[in-house]
Design brief:
This protein is of the alpha+beta class. It has a domain of 138 residues: Aminopeptidase (3-Layer(aba) Sandwich). It has 5 helices and 12 strands. Helix 5 links the parallel strand 9 and strand 10.
Length: 250
């Protein structure tokens, strides 16, 4: 079932694995896996969803507290970066310096053969939970459904090396998914695309950038936990500044 945004917030808990009636602002996730479907939403509504720990792939919105990789369970850590506090670290400046030869192109999102081919290279990084295509993450109309979405493309000598798909809200932006050529590990393309997304977001006056989930435990997503101005969502008490060593091991 797909419902419009005027019904989403009233009916969303009816789509949960374990349906519970609670306030939209309640940060306590009693059941591990919550989800709903929504085909159309507003920038302001997206800000609220992200603030409550929701993410989406296409029209499927979800939030969960744990994830399993192999035989190990990981604790989910929703993240965001306060753009008023963000400053570049020395290592991030080096990433920008070694990618001075790249060209950045930002435009409404769409999928074509070039990006599909890059995705097939990118997914070689994963050993389990391997995605099948970009359609796992994007709607058939990614630029507008369920919300405005841009793609930030990284080119080197006219060759596409990386793409991140960036949702645009009213006061925040959020990375839906990113792909890059794993053969270009020396470029740190995942970090580069985050830095360019942060730059784009701050230049346009947004307050927060949501880079997606990481885990408290060490994992390949730990690069997301190395940014000044980072905050994490405590499901019981709300957003808190991320301090290395106090939570997670990034």
């Amino acid at each position: 079932m797909i419902i419009a945004i005027d019904a989403c917030r009233r009916a969303r808990y009816s789509f949960h694995t374990d349906s519970n009636s609670r306030s939209d602002l309640d940060m306590t996730v009693a059941d591990n896996d919550q989800s709903f479907l929504c085909i159309d939403t507003t920038p302001a509504a997206m800000d609220q969803y992200w603030a409550e720990g929701w993410r989406h792939f296409g029209v499927f919105f979800f939030r969960y507290m744990t994830a399993v990789h192999g035989e190990k369970r990981f604790t989910v850590l929703p993240l965001r970066i306060d753009l008023e506090r963000f400053v570049l670290t020395r290592s991030q400046k080096r990433v920008l310096a070694k990618n001075e030869d790249t060209k950045i192109l930002i435009r409404p999102a769409f999928v074509n053969a070039e990006k599909a081919a890059l995705f097939l290279q990118h997914r070689r990084r994963f050993k389990d939970n391997v995605p099948s295509s970009l359609n796992d993450f994007l709607s058939p109309y990614p630029a507008s459904v369920p919300c405005p979405n841009l793609e930030l493309c990284v080119y080197v000598a006219e060759r596409l090396q990386g793409v991140t798909f960036l949702d645009v809200g009213q006061t925040a932006t959020s990375a839906v998914y990113a792909i890059f050529d794993p053969a270009e590990t020396k470029r740190s393309l995942g970090i580069l695309m985050m830095l360019r997304s942060l730059e784009f977001s701050r230049q346009r006056g947004y307050r927060y950038y949501y880079p997606g989930y990481a885990y408290q435990e060490p994992f390949i997503y730990d690069y997301k936990k190395r940014f000044i101005g980072l905050e994490y969502l405590d499901w019981k008490t709300g957003w808190k500044p991320y301090v290395k060593g106090e939570i997670g091991a990034g």
